[in-house]
Amino acid sequence: MLKLWGRLNSLNVQKVVLALEEIGLPYERIDAGLQFGHNKTPEYLAKNPMGLVPTLEEDGFVLWESNAITRYLCAKYAPGTLYYDDLRARADAERWMDWQGPTLNNALVPAFYNLVRVAEDKRDMAAVETSRVKTIELMAMFDAHLKGRDFVAGGQFGFGDIGMLPIIHRWLNMPCTLAPVPHAQAWYQRLMQRPACQRVLTLPLS
Ligand SMILES: N[C@@H](CCC(=O)N[C@@H](CS)C(=O)NCC(=O)O)C(=O)O
Fold first, then answer.
1. Is 32 in the pocket of ligand 1 (CB under 6 A)?
2. How far is Cα 33 from Cα 4, in angstroms, rounded to an integer?
3. I want to staple 5 with a disulfide (CB 3.0 to 4.6 A). Which of 40, 55, 110, 150 is the partner?
């Protein structure tokens, strides 16, 4: 059986769980990271030298990096559906997915961390504001991309949507003032009709 290490409040873990749930694969998820620990033990580091979550193991094959795991699962278990046959659709989705981590998430982290994980009297509100403004700017780019598209790669739901949903869920539920993103909002509502998305994105931000 597939084994996945990672806590469910991590957006990188959420991507992989969404892929597993959308595909309908049986898997075991073991809580790891932050309050659960385990990710710095020698046993875990032997699988994932970064000591981060998620990590997937499939019959002795170990993979880390959430985007790589998500794409691997979709390519292996959902070719032609979650894993687009069309090379341009695939590249388009990969682009947004790869932009999400180093660009969008890096912009969002200071606001998320301070507003969600830091006690009110210890928050760096200047960092929150810089982060909020930068994320709004980046979200406008994703919103413009979704204009006239039902899904990230066009007309077909696939791994690009899975890769983007957790961070958009986080942003749209942030306790701060957001700018309107009507196309991203409509896409988010469309995805949240899906039973797998409803099952995975249930926890409040933490
Ligand atoms: N690029 C990596 C980033 C992994 C990462 O930063 N994971 C975070 C959670 S989102 C983590 O493990 N943090 C330490 C912890 O949870 O203890 C990926 O996409 O898998």
1. no
2. 12
3. 55
Asked if residue 34 has its Cβ within 6 Å of ligand 1, the reply is: yes
Read off the pLDDT of each residue in 74-96 and give the average, rounded to a whole number: 98
166 CB within 6 A, ligand 1? no
pLDDT, tens digit (0-9, with 9 covering 90-100), for 149-183: 999 999 999 999 999 999 999 999 999 999 999 99
Distance (Å, whole) CA 140 – CA 133: 11
3-state DSSP percent of the chain in helix, strand and coil, to 5 = 60, 10, 30
Distance 55 CA to ligand 1 centre (A): 10
Question: Which CATH topology does 87-195 take?
Answer: Glutathione S-transferase Yfyf (Class Pi); Chain A, domain 2 (1.20.1050)
Would the CB of 101 count as within 6 Å of ligand 1?
yes
- Record the pTM: 0.97
Average pLDDT of every residue of the chain = 97
